[in-house]
Amino acid sequence: MKIAAIDPGLTGAAVVLEQIGGVVMLISAIDLPIMGDGAKRRLDAFTFAHWLNDHAPTHVYIEAGRAMPKQGVTSMFRYGRACGAIEGVVAARGVPMTLVEPATWKRYLHLNSSKEDCRARALQLLPSAAPELQRVKDHHRAEAILLGFYGLEKGISA
Length: 158
What we know:
Blueprint: E1 2-7, E2 13-20, E3 23-31, E4 34-35, E5 42-43, H1 45-55, E6 59-63, H2 73-93, E7 97-100, H3 102-108, H4 115-125, H5 139-154
Parallel strand pairs: 1-6, 6-7
Antiparallel strand pairs: 1-2, 2-3, 4-5
Helix pairs in contact: 1-2, 4-5
């Protein structure tokens, strides 16, 4: 089974995982493609759609986007716009998707809100992902990997 998992937002990430005979492999990990500068930054939906098409997952798991406390109106609008664009690209590709609440997959994997704990747990579950998780900002990739593990283990679908 080949799935994609996405940590949405303008600093988000996406991964493709494939499970064969109980072994999970990381096929691809990307920072979400962004276009524009400053206030005009947005998801490069065209590039993201091509990435999704190239990897042809059978299901996509997306962390459910929600308003976050103490976030400004402008940043929340950009985040919501990115979430909507991601869901739109996935829907246009005709790939089934499941939105998963952050608290749900984090509780299942015994995680707190620490970004570094997410990177450590992703490396524990998938040591071969180390080259993709070297930078501090790769916690978005780690969260996408963990969301993918949650989806594979729970076997949930839309």
